[in-house]
Structures are given as structure tokens and as C-alpha cells.
TrEMBL record, chain A:
TM ranges: 21-38, 50-68, 99-132, 179-199, 220-242, 254-271, 283-301, 307-323
Compartments it resides in: Cell membrane
Protein name per Swiss-Prot or TrEMBL: ABC transporter permease
PANTHER family: ABC TRANSPORTER PERMEASE PROTEIN YPHD-RELATED (PTHR32196:SF21), ABC TRANSPORTER PERMEASE PROTEIN YPHD-RELATED-RELATED (PTHR32196)
Source species of the chain: Jiella sonneratiae
Topology class, membrane: Multi-pass membrane protein
Keyword Transmembrane helix belongs to the record: yes
Principal localisation: membrane
Entry keyword set: Cell inner membrane, Cell membrane, Membrane, Transmembrane, Transmembrane helix, Transport
Pfam families in the record: BPD_transp_2
Automatic annotation (TrEMBL), chain B:
Protein's recorded name: ATP-binding cassette domain-containing protein
Topology class, membrane: Multi-pass membrane protein
Stretch forming the signal peptide: none
InterPro entries: AAA+_ATPase (IPR003593), ABC_carbohydrate_import_ATPase (IPR050107), ABC_transp_permease (IPR001851), ABC_transporter-like_ATP-bd (IPR003439), ABC_transporter-like_CS (IPR017871), P-loop_NTPase (IPR027417)
Species of the source: Jiella sonneratiae
PROSITE patterns reported in the protein's UniProt record: ABC_TRANSPORTER_1 (PS00211), ABC_TRANSPORTER_2 (PS50893)
Residues passing through the membrane, by range: 540-561, 573-594, 606-631, 638-664, 684-707, 736-756, 762-781, 793-813, 819-837
Entry similarity comment: Belongs to the ABC transporter superfamily.
PANTHER family, sorted: CARBOHYDRATE TRANSPORT ATP-BINDING PROTEIN MG119-RELATED (PTHR43790), D-ALLOSE IMPORT ATP-BINDING PROTEIN ALSA-RELATED (PTHR43790:SF3)
Length: 327, 848
């Protein structure tokens, strides 16, 4: 992001400041309301708790951001996370080794991502349709595998069996929670992927002008398909982390993350100069959504407000983005 | 000028027209008279000002000074409609038609004849269309779909459409560019007959032979100035070319002699559909080889076919002695090809990215190890390229969209220099480029030639061709018309051949295969048969598949066909069909409503709530419809006022709607009991037939009539399927897009009320997405049932009932209904895949 310097002269320092930093002040202002209503909102415990909980959303959102930076979309991401958590839990319940519970779900995510990539990039199915269809195919698989949405409960098993698996979601390395470490590692990896690699250059070109990218000799189908694979893998990691954190996996339990991931990516566009997808912006967006959900719960407002506010923020972010483009 | 002596007043007159663009004087003091009932040609090289003049005449541009007179009266043309009101009608070069419409609907788009109630007078319009088609000598009927017509036939449709607008002055812009010789002759008959009927015709063409054959008088423009108007009998081709070329070569070309090496690239009988027809060329190392010709001559297509971006339909290419047939630009790049595309802003540059990103994009792997870029080395190379090509400003982080045209072009050239490219295809590299950058670009071409590369310069700027090239092939209508050596080159000669000169000089190497049959054999018969098969599958495949599926179900579970079960399926399917209908209405006009399911859920809650509050069935239904329409309006506002892509806008609205629903019902299901009147809507029967199905049938019939028989419906389709065409016909997109969102919303609201009645209340879960996928699956599966593959309400309803049958059947067979979502998902993907699989795009969507 820092490499892209705006060449246009800003009309007034104040306006430029507002444009560059308005989003972050807006977010802080929203969160400040929760603080005023319920000061415990900013207690170190609560903040750490939210950071821990946000790891799942961060993983899914980062994958979504990679796909969306190429003008794709992955509506199956939350469902992949869902199924991945389920696979992990079922493997543990069936007495399989722990490494399998970590590796196989990610393999599953990569495989679904590859099928998505095949459909969108090589067959040419519009991403909205293809990934929506995939979402429902996975959902069916989950329902059949769990005999109609029976929760796969791990926390009732003997601690000795589950401890290594639950360590990811509940343990900590020294004072730092494993989930926070996971989130940081994923962010660094994805940020690196989207700024330091040849993939990032090609992906950006495809997002900006696919015809020109094609004529410049880029394998547009291959690169576009890879985006879905990355998204599938990240969503699967998020799903495993969720199962590990909560100690259970329930079919369709991760579905609400789809909305949150969209909101995170769209809010993240506020942090890019040209109003496009930004990886650091997505991280900030995901954290904001995490704190927002927590704040709503603390002040006693439930899912309806979360839906409405997330939807509203998506619209708001796009309206601001539209204004930015005009100026 | 004493034109008052002339008794017949000119049909069209321009007096001292002046039009300026920033930095360019496009028309200066142009005065021109076109007599009533004559065919008047407008001639000039590219950039002479012809198209600007036409745009002024048709109300696209407004002149800075001067008057336009029609029949002696000064007229103002501020909008396209003003021109038509004055009897000026234009047939554009690339006539935009709605491919999925039939001929009648296309030619009448924008001037539909309707009854007082707003219904299309199809019979009358069809009869008029048939007459107009007869006039232009067309051999197809008014019911033919445009997509089944050839390019030449579409041209006939475009002219028929112009005739129906009762032109007094008809402007034809390059009408013959894509026609074969027989088709041209046919067109000329039509044009002459029109003249004899008293229509005044302004004819723009690059092909001088045709012009001399057809027109009565001609006017030559050069550099935005009027050179002369002549009677065709008083001039000659030589004189016209002299007037078009005019000046001495004004610019100095940095041409250097470079030793020319062996033949590197051999092209034999290369064909691309009807655009390139059997071109043979041998091009040598160190040579700057010109491909001269006018727009539409097939030069760009030739270049694209060389790099595999266009499919070849015949011929071979040999590169350095080996056959070359790259599968696409990527393979071509590996083989050494480098294309500098004609449309710099759209095909060449990635305008949103920086100079550095653009410069190193094709060869980025060169600086990467295991995918990780050595950013230092990569940046240094970008800076070196910037210095070598003296790209301004020097900061390589500058976004390329902020560069001048010349510097943008240098970026597009520069990005091929770090690689091992040795065949450079420059397609119109200097259009819109300042003089300084031009010289820089020429120097680069020379430097590449000196390096032993093959340099092909495609240009319609013949001065540049003459100034820079060692040899030149002049193309016209897909063929090489002449091959000129350096000592034979001058602008007039090139123009002579480009505008339809005689056979290539004896001794010229390429034997332009003039013997190619004039009927454009667009593809070999094998592919035609394949296409027929594909056409059959996409026509009937879906329906056959659906019937076969139902047959299997009936075989495995005979009870499926029992009347009781069938009516049950109809009842279940009808509820889904209502939602799918609402969504279809939005999709028709090019929108997308992700909030469709959420709207239905909200209104089902509100309707159920009203019933609980004893407001009565009528109020519940009315509130549902009204609320749905309001949400539709909100969707339309975000899409149109804030210019958001429909997906994003309706996604946001979907979540807000879901939140509002949960606020309304407080997270509790609303259960209804003892409301027989309200329940009758969704659960009642008329005889054995479910009442809800009868409602559905009525609504479908109304919507079908609305979409296929009214002006509003026709225009909604037009806006959704070919927006540029709709705009050219003066149709306002916001209006019809809003209509589709609001009508669709109202239907979704209505379906919510039905849903509440059908399920004895409203559910508390936010199941908006579940309804959405069923509705999308029904709409797109339904679209595969229509003749033209377009979305249509009957197809949607049939598909919705099919999906319900499928779910019913799966349960009857004993397959758990847990598989149902997967079935819907597969149906959705498959029905879309049928439509897209032959296109070559990737599944990107509009996000920002």
C-alpha cells in the first residue's frame, strides 16, 4: 500500500486528512459509544478476548480479500470453514491422530477452492453463482455427514484426548494466546503474498484490467483460480480454529461469518487510496467487526442489530468509496 | 456565397462549423451543402474530422460556432433525439442491436407503436418491418432473432431500422466495412432506391472505388478543414487522393538504415473468420515492416491471431523455421511475441496500477525466486526503463492513468523490453501521442530492429508508414492488396491501395488470394456441425434433462404421479415460484437482487404480524406488496444514485433487511392459527387445484404479457441485455432499472404474504440466503428453456415447479432431503455453465 503514492494534489490538508483517516476515526467513534455505555468494554480482559475471538473472522476475511482483489467473490468461504471445523471434530471423535485433525480440513479447503477455481476461472461461471452453489453443496454434505445437524461435541471427551487439538483455540504461548499468534501469522503471510510475490502483481493486474493482463501474457485463469484456493485454505484454517476454540462443531455454525467477512473487506476498502481491496484494511475491518459484535452483546443488543449494522456499514463504505473516486 | 440563387434549398447545410477539443481544433470553419435527394460522400483520412462532423450533425457534440440548417431553417441539436426530430438518422458503423430480440423488436426499439393501454402493436409493427426489410433486400423474416443473423444481415436490420424512422437525411457511416462484394452491390441498390424516393444521403467511406461508383457529389476534409466539394463526374481518384493527402510530409522520421537479416516470420494463408482472409507474408529480422490499411482492414485481427488471442480459421505461421501456433498471449510471449495493442487505455495499460507495476508485469518472474520478488532489483529495472525511454514524470510510482498518452505508450512498449521478445507488433502506436513521444517511439522501433528483432508497424497514419517502414503490406477487407518496397513508398500510393486499389503490382510477392469465395465461410463445416450440436443441447438439453429426471423419479416412486401428490408439488412449488418471479423481474433489466429472499422473509413476518393484529388478509397482502416495493426502491437508489454494483448494494440491503426482520419478530416465530380466510391463499384448493397455483398462473400470465407485449417490458429487457444499444435509441436506463427493482420488490413482497399463509405464520430464522439460492436456481434454469436463452417468467415458473418436484421426489425415493441444497446448488451452477461455457471470459463480477 505504501508504495502507491497519490500523485493528485489534495484540495486542502483537512479534507485530505479526513479522507485518509476519516474511516479510522469513524470506527473509533462507534466503539467509543460502547465504552460510554459500558466501560467494561475496554477492560484488558475484554479486549484480549475480542482479539482472540477475531482470529477466525480474520482468517476468513483475508481469504475473501484475496479473491475480491481480483474481482471475484467467495460465498462458500464461511461454509468451507464450517465443514472444516466439522471434519476436524469428527476426526477427533473417531479417535484419529491430532495432526490429521489439523491437516485434513485444510486439504479439504484447498480441494474445494480448487473446484471453485476450476468453475469460475476455466468454465467461466460468475463467481456469485458458482460459489453460492458450492456453499449449498457443502451444506448438504455437512447435513448428511452429521445426520441432520447433530453437533459434534469435543469438550465432553476426556481432556487427554482433546487437549492437543484444543490448544490452538484455547491455549497460549507464554502470555500470548495461540489464536492471536495464529491471526498475526496469517496476516503476515497474506500481506506478504499480496505485496511481495509475483502472484500479487498478477492478481492486481487481473483485478484492475483483465483484458490488458491477458494481452500482457498473464495466465489469467490460473491466477484467478489460485485466489479461490487461497481463500479455501484460509477459510478452512479459520474453521479449525473455531472448532478448537469452542470445543464443538455444529453444522451451519460458522455461516454468520460470511456476512462479517464481507463487512470486513468492504470496510477495509476505506483504507486504500483508490478504494480497492486492501489487506491491512481488511485486518482493521475484521477487528472492528469483532469489537462491534462484542460491544453490541455487552450493551445487550443481539443479532438483529449486528445484521443491520453490518449491512449498513457495507453500504456506507461503498458510498464513501464512490465519493472518493469522484474527487 | 450566393446560394439564394439556387432555387432548391439544400436539404442540409453547415455554416462555418467550429469544434474544439482540449488542445485540438477538430473542425475549423467547415461549410458544406448537401442537396435534396443526392448521395453526398464525406471523405478524408483518419483524423480529418469526418466523425466529429457527423457527431455534431447528430446531436452528440455541440459545435462551438456555426449553424446547422435543415431545409433552410437553423436547427439546434442538443440531444440525439433532436436530430431524429429533424429527420436526420444515422446508421452507425458498429450498429448496436439486442442479440436476443427478434428483428421487429430491434428496429422498433425506442419508437415502439403501442395501443392506448401501452401494449405493443406487434402485428402492425411486424408488417411494417417486413416492408422495410423488403426495401433493403433482406431475405429473412421479421421474427428472426438477431443473434442468428450474419454481420451483413445485421447491417440490413440497422438500415431497416433507420428507414422506419422516416429519415429525410440518412447518414451512413462506413456501411460496407464488413460486407462482401455481392452484399455491397445489394446495399448500393438500396441506397440508390432511397435517393430516388427523395431521401438525402450522406455517405462516409474509406473505399474510393465504391464512392466513385455510388455518389453524386463528394466533400473532402483534411485536418478539420473543408478542402473542396466536387461533382463526382468532374473529379478523379487521383485528384481525391491528392486532396486527402495534401501536404508534404511534415514530420521528420528518425529512419535509420539497419542491416536486414534472414526471414524470421512466415505467414501462409492465414485466415481469421471473415476479418482476415488468407494473408501470406514473409518478414525479416531487422526490418520494420508496415501493415498499412484503414480501420476494419483486418490488421489488428492479424496481430491478435499471431499471438493466439484470436482463433485462426486457416493457414500456418512459421517462426524461426518452426511452426508457431500459440494457445494464447502467454504462450506467444514465451515464443518471443510482444504486442503493443491498438486500444492503449483498455487493452494495453493497466491504468489503476503504477508505472513500475506496468513496466515489470509481463516479465515479473524474472525478478522472482520461488514467487518472491527481489523488489530492489525489480525497482531498479523499472527505473532504468523509465530513463531509457525518458518517461515523464520520472517517479515510477506514478499511476499510469495520470500519464500523458505518449508516456503511457512508452510504458506499454517498455514492459516488453526486459524479456527476450524478438517479434514486436506495434498496433497504431502513435495515435493520441505528442510529437516528442512519437519520436521516442520511432527510435525504440529502430533500436529493436538494430537488435535483430522483427518489428511490425500497424498504422493508418500513412505518413508514418512511409517514413518508418522498409516494406509495407497494404491491407483492405482482410486481404493484402499490395506489397510495396521502400523505394515505391509514398502516401498517395499507400492510400490508393488501402482505399481499394487494383490488384497488387505484378511481381509483388504475396499472391493475394482474391479467389477466396465471397460468401464469407466463417468457419469450416466441422465446427458448424459442432455448433449445431451445441445449439441443440443448449436449446433442448435442459428440458430433456428435466423430463428425464422426473421420469426416473416416477419410475422409482410411482406414487409421485398420483394426482394428490402432483397437486401437492404444485402447491409447494408455487411459493418458491413467486420469489423466483420477483427475482427474475430484477435480473431482466440487468440488475441482481441478493436481497430477494430477505425481502420475502421480512414481508412474510409483517403480513403474519398484521394478521395477528387482526388487520385482515387484504391489509396483510397490501402491506407486503408495498413494503417489498419500498425495499426495491431503496435497492434501486443505491444502485443508481450511488452507482454501486447491484451485488454490493443489495448485499448490504439484504443484511439490513434481515436485521429489521429480526427486530420486528423479536427473534420469535409468528405462528398463526384459526385464520381460514388468510390460509386459503396459500393452502386452499379450488376443486383439486391449489389456490396458490391459480394465483401463480394468473400472475405469470400478467407478467408474461407485461414483459413481452408492453413498451416498458421491452425496454427493461433492452436495458438489461444491451445497454449501449438501448442508450443509442434514447432509452433511459435509470428509469427502467428502477421499474424492474420496484416491480420485482412488489412481487417479492407479495410472495412474502403468500409464504406467511402457506406456512401458517413466519419463521424466526434469517433464511434469506436459502430462498435466494432456490430463486436464482429457478430463474437461471428457466432461462435455459427459452429459445434465446434469456430470462423469462414462464421458464422461471416451470423451473421452480421442477425444483419442487425434485425435492418431493427425492423424499419419495427415500433420499434424505438433506441432499436438497446440493441438488439446488448443482442445478444452479449447471444451468449457468450451459450459457457461459463457450465464452472465453472468467467469472469476474462487478464489485466496485
Amino acid at each position: 500500500m505504501s508504495q502507491v503514492l497519490s500523485q493528485r494534489s489534495t484540495g486542502g490538508a483537512a479534507l485530505g486528512f479526513l479522507r485518509d483517516y476519516g474511516a479510522i476515526f469513524g470506527m473509533l467513534a462507534v466503539l467509543a459509544i460502547f465504552y460510554v455505555m459500558q466501560p467494561a468494554f475496554v477492560s484488558p480482559n475484554n479486549v484480549l478476548n475480542v482479539l482472540r475471538q477475531s482470529a477466525v473472522l480474520i482468517a476468513i476475511s483475508l481469504g475473501m480479500a484475496v479473491v475480491m482483489s481480483m474481482r471475484g467473490v467467495d460465498l462458500s468461504a464461511a461454509q468451507i470453514a464450517d465443514a472444516a471445523g466439522l471434519i476436524a471434530a469428527m476426526l477427533i471423535l473417531h479417535g484419529q491422530p491430532v495432526w490429521m485433525a489439523f491437516v485434513l480440513p485444510v486439504v479439504f479447503g484447498v480441494a474445494i477452492g480448487a473446484i471453485n477455481g476450476l468453475l469460475m476461472a476455466y468454465v467461466g461461471v460468475p463467481a456469485i453463482i458458482g460459489t453460492l452453489g458450492m456453499m449449498f453443496i457443502i451444506r448438504s454434505g455437512e447435513l448428511i455427514a452429521t445426520n441432520g445437524a447433530e453437533p459434534q461435541i469435543l469438550f465432553s471427551l476426556p481432556r487427554g484426548i482433546t487437549a492437543p487439538f484444543l490448544f490452538l483455540g484455547q491455549g497460549s504461548l507464554g502470555p500470548v494466546s495461540m489464536l492471536i499468534i495464529l491471526a498475526v501469522v496469517l496476516f503476515v503471510l497474506v500481506y506478504g503474498l499480496m505485496s511481495l510475490t509475483s502472484f500479487s502483481r498478477r492478481a492486481r493486474a487481473i483485478g484492475a484490467n483483465v483484458r490488458a493482463a491477458y494481452l500482457a501474457g498473464i495466465r489469467i485463469r490460473w491466477v484467478f483460480a489460485l485466489g479461490f484456493v487461497v481463500s479455501g485454505a484460509l477459510a478452512a484454517i479459520g474453521g479449525v480454529a473455531l472448532a478448537s476454540r469452542t470445543g464443538l462443531a455444529m453444522p451451519r455454525g460458522a455461516e454468520p461469518f460470511l456476512l462479517d467477512a464481507f463487512a470486513a473487506v468492504f470496510l477495509g476498502t476505506l483504507f486504500s487510496k483508490q478504494g480497492g481491496v486492501s489487506i491491512p484494511g481488511t485486518l482493521i475491518g475484521a477487528l472492528f467487526i469483532g469489537f462491534l459484535g462484542n460491544g453490541l452483546t455487552i450493551v445487550g443488543l443481539g443479532a438483529p442489530y449486528r445484521y443491520a449494522l453490518n449491512g449498513g456499514f457495507i453500504l456506507l463504505a461503498m458510498m464513501v468509496g464512490g465519493l472518493k473516486k469522484r474527487t | 456565397m450566393a446560394f439564394d440563387f439556387d432555387p432548391p434549398r439544400p436539404a442540409l447545410e453547415c455554416r462555418n462549423i467550429r469544434k474544439e477539443f482540449p488542445g485540438v481544433l477538430a473542425l475549423s470553419d467547415v461549410s458544406l451543402q448537401v442537396r435534396k435527394g443526392e448521395i453526398h460522400a464525406l471523405l478524408g483520412q483518419n483524423g480529418a474530422g469526418k466523425s466529429t462532423l457527423v457527431k455534431v450533425l447528430t446531436g452528440v457534440y455541440r459545435q462551438e460556432a456555426g449553424d446547422i440548417l435543415v431545409d433552410g431553417e437553423v436547427v439546434r441539436m442538443d440531444r440525439v433525439a433532436d436530430a431524429e426530430a429533424n429527420g436526420i438518422v444515422i446508421v452507425h458503423q458498429d450498429q448496436q442491436l439486442v442479440a436476443q430480440f427478434d428483428v421487429t423488436r430491434n428496429v422498433y426499439l425506442g419508437i415502439e407503436e403501442t395501443t392506448a393501454a401501452g401494449f405493443l402493436k406487434l402485428a402492425e409493427m411486424r408488417a411494417e418491418t417486413a416492408k422495410a426489410l423488403a426495401k433493403v433486400g433482406a431475405s429473412f423474416t421479421p421474427d428472426t432473432l438477431i443473434r442468428d443473423l450474419s454481420v451483413a444481415q445485421r447491417e440490413q436490420v440497422a438500415i431497416a431500422a433507420a428507414l422506419l424512422r422516416k429519415p429525410r437525411i440518412l447518414i451512413l457511416d462506413e456501411p460496407t466495412a464488413s460486407l462482401s462484394e455481392t452484399e455491397v452491390a445489394l446495399l448500393f441498390d438500396v441506397v440508390r432506391r432511397l435517393r430516388d424516393d427523395g431521401v438525402t444521403i450522406v455517405y462516409i467511406s474509406h473505399y474510393l472505388d465504391e464512392v466513385l461508383d455510388l455518389v453524386d457529389r463528394l466533400t473532402v476534409l483534411r485536418d478539420g478543414k473543408l478542402i473542396a466539394t466536387r461533382n463526382v463526374g468532374e473529379t478523379s481518384r487521383g485528384e481525391i487522393i491528392r486532396m486527402m493527402v495534401g501536404r508534404e510530409i511534415s514530420q521528420l522520421y528518425p529512419k535509420e538504415e539497419v542491416p536486414i537479416g534472414e526471414t524470421a516470420l512466415s505467414i501462409r494463408d492465414l485466415s481469421v473468420g471473415s476479418a482476415v482472409r488468407g494473408v501470406s507474408l514473409d518478414i525479416r529480422r531487422g526490418e520494420i515492416f508496415g501493415l498499412a490499411g484503414l480501420m476494419g482492414a483486418g490488421r489488428s485481427e492479424l496481430a491478435l491471431a499471431l499471438i493466439g488471442a484470436l482463433k485462426r480459421t486457416g493457414g500456418t505461421v512459421t517462426l524461426h523455421g518452426k511452426p508457431s501456433n500459440p494457445s494464447g498471449p502467454q504462450a506467444a510471449m514465451a515464443a518471443g511475441f510482444a504486442l503493443i495493442p491498438e486500444d492503449r487505455r483498455h487493452d494495453g495499460l493497466i491504468a489503476d496500477l503504477s508505472m513500475r507495476d506496468n513496466l515489470t508485469l509481463p516479465n515479473i518472474a524474472k525478478w522472482a525466486r520461488f514467487g518472491l520478488i527481489n523488489l530492489g532489483a525489480e525497482k531498479a529495472e523499472a527505473q532504468a526503463l523509465q530513463r531509457d525511454l525518458s518517461i515523464q514524470p520520472p517517479n515510477t510510482a506514478t499511476l499510469t492513468q495520470n500519464l500523458s498518452g505518449g508516456n503511457q505508450q512508452k510504458v506499454v512498449i517498455g514492459r516488453w523490453l526486459p524479456g527476450h521478445s524478438d517479434i514486436f507488433l506495434f498496433d497504431e502506436p502513435t495515435t493520441g501521442v505528442d510529437v516528442g513521444s512519437k519520436v521516442e517511439i520511432y527510435r525504440q522501433m529502430t533500436a529493436l530492429a538494430r537488435r535483430g528483432a522483427v518489428v511490425i508497424l500497424i498504422s493508418s497514419d500513412f505518413e508514418e508508414i512511409v517514413g518508418m517502414c522498409d516494406r509495407v503490406a497494404v491491407m483492405q477487407k482482410g486481404r493484402v492488396n499490395a506489397l510495396l518496397e521502400r523505394n515505391e513508398l509514398d502516401v498517395a500510393t499507400v492510400l490508393y491501395h488501402a482505399s481499394g486499389g487494383e490488384e497488387a503490382e505484378p511481381g509483388a510477392k504475396p499472391k493475394a488470394p482474391r479467389a477466396v469465395p465471397t460468401a464469407p465461410a466463417e468457419s469450416p463445416p466441422g465446427t458448424a456441425r459442432l455448433r449445431d450440436a451445441a445449439g441443440f443441447v443448449s436449446h433442448w438439453g435442459a428440458l430433456i434433462g428435466m423430463l428425464a429426471t422426473l421420469a426416473v423419479i416416477a419410475f422409482l416412486a410411482p406414487v409421485f404421479l398420483s394426482p394428490g401428490n402432483l397437486f401437492d408439488v404444485l402447491k409447494q412449488g408455487s411459493v418458491l415460484a413467486f420469489i423466483a418471479l420477483g427475482l427474475t423481474l430484477v435480473l431482466v433489466a440487468g440488475g441482481l437482487d441478493v436481497s430477494a429472499g430477505a425481502i420475502s422473509q421480512l414481508t412474510s413476518n409483517v403480513a403474519a404480524g398484521l394478521i395477528v393484529g387482526a388487520a385482515g388478509s387484504a391489509a396483510a397482502v397490501a402491506a407486503g406488496v408495498a413494503l417489498g416495493a419500498v425495499v426495491g426502491l431503496v435497492n434501486a437508489a443505491f444502485v443508481l444514485v450511488f452507482a454501486m454494483p447491484p451485488f454490493v448494494a443489495t448485499l448490504g440491503v439484504m443484511f439490513v433487511t434481515m436485521g429489521v426482520t429480526l427486530l420486528y419478530n423479536g427473534g420469535q416465530a409468528i405462528t398463526l392459527a384459526g385464520e381460514p380466510g388468510f390460509f386459503y391463499l396459500g393452502q386452499g384448493y379450488v376443486g383439486p387445484v391449489p389456490a396458490v397455483f391459480i394465483l401463480l398462473a394468473v400472475l405469470t400470465a400478467i407478467l408474461h404479457l407485461f414483459l413481452s407485449r408492453t413498451r416498458t417490458g421491452l425496454r427493461m429487457y433492452a436495458v438489461g441485455q444491451n445497454l449501449p444499444a438501448a442508450r443509442l435509441r434514447g432509452i433511459s436506463q435509470p428509469r427502467y432499472a428502477t421499474a424492474s427493482f420496484v416491480i420485482g420488490g412488489a412481487i417479492l413482497g407479495f410472495s412474502g404474504a403468500i409464504l406467511a399463509s402457506y406456512s401458517y405464520g413466519a419463521s424466526a430464522l434469517a433464511t434469506g440466503i436459502d430462498y435466494l439460492i432456490s430463486a436464482l436456481a429457478a430463474a437461471f434454469l428457466g432461462s435455459t428453456l427459452s429459445r434465446s436463452g434469456q430470462l423469462n417468467v414462464t421458464g422461471t415458473v416451470v423451473a421452480a415447479i421442477f425444483l419442487a418436484s425434485l425435492s418431493n421426489g427425492l423424499i419419495l425415493i427415500g433420499i434424505s432431503n438433506q441432499a436438497l441444497p446440493a441438488v439446488q446448488g448443482v442445478v444452479l451452477i449447471a444451468s449457468i455453465a450451459i450459457g457461459v461455457v463457450r465464452r472465453r471470459e472468467i467469472g469476474q463480477i462487478l464489485l466496485f
